[in-house]
Amino acid sequence: QSALTQPPSVSGSPGQSVTISCTATSSDVGSYNHVSWYQQPPGTAPKLMIYDVTNRPSGVPDRFSGSKSGNTASLTISGLQAEDEADYYCSSYTNSNTYFFGTGTKVTVL
Amino acid sequence: EVQLVESGGGLVQPGGSLRISCAASGFTFSNYWMHWLRQTPDQGLVWVSDIKGDGSNTHYADSVKGRFTISRDNAKNTLYLQMNSLRVEDTAVYYCTRSGAPYAVDVWGQGTTVTVSS
Fold first, then answer.
1. Which of A100, A105, A107 is nearest to A3 (CA)?
2. Which of A48, A66, A79, B79 has a CA positioned 20 to 30 A from the CA of residue A56?
3. Cβ atoms of A81 and A109 closer than 8 Å
């Protein structure tokens, strides 16, 4: 049983917004302030999209945004595009100096 | 260009050992924490281990603690993962990654496949 739970799938039409949740079920994540998000298109290595809950690395479109409320972090994709179709994983640093990854969410662009 | 290239994956019997490597280029290797992660269709992405830039500090996932050892050679810009007492459940694609953002990894290798099977 993963310490970070994500919905198996979400979908939306081009131009719409979708939100992926990531709920911490273990107190090992502490204050849950070190949450990151990764995008993985089929057959490729993951790519960092968000770090420390809300920060975007250089080169990531501002259509991608992160937030957190309580023990649930979220990734929102605004203005959904066909190229956004991929698996998305959340990750959190823990009190034990280790990392958890979420169960993964498949985003489908209809 | 920042690049990580893994090598050394392959087929090994349960109980056996394997060492995988990761050659880094395009950045000052010794300045970064480095991590190994692995991925399977069933378990998804799993963090395995990390090591500080100067090699002075390491951490491991509970599932590999006591069996795997992470190390680095900064003179050769190379990261290693020595895997002993391998189990069938260690079968995965292993990724070498760089921690270039706080508590996150920003550069990934292409992955190397480790298969543990009799």
1. A100
2. B79
3. yes
Q: Which residues pair with B118 in a beta bridge?
A: none
Percentage of residues of chain B with pLDDT beyond 90: 97
Find the farthest-apart pair of alpha carbons in chain A and give their distance in angstroms, rounded: 41
Across B95-108, average pLDDT = 96
- Whether B41 and chain A come into contact, CB under 8 Å, resolves to no
Contact A51 B110 (CB under 8 A): no
Is B47 in Cβ contact with A98 (below 8 Å)? yes
Across the interface, whether the CB atoms of B104 and A91 are under 8 A apart is answered yes
Question: Which residues in chain B have their CB less than 8 angstroms from residue A91's CB?
Answer: 45, 47, 104
**pLDDT tens by residue, A59-97:** 999 999 999 998 999 999 999 999 999 999 999 999 889
DSSP string over B30-66: GGSEEEEEEEETTTEEEEEEEE-TTS--EEE-TTTTT
**Alpha-carbon separation of residue B20 from A13, A31, A60, B17 (angstroms):** 42, 34, 31, 10
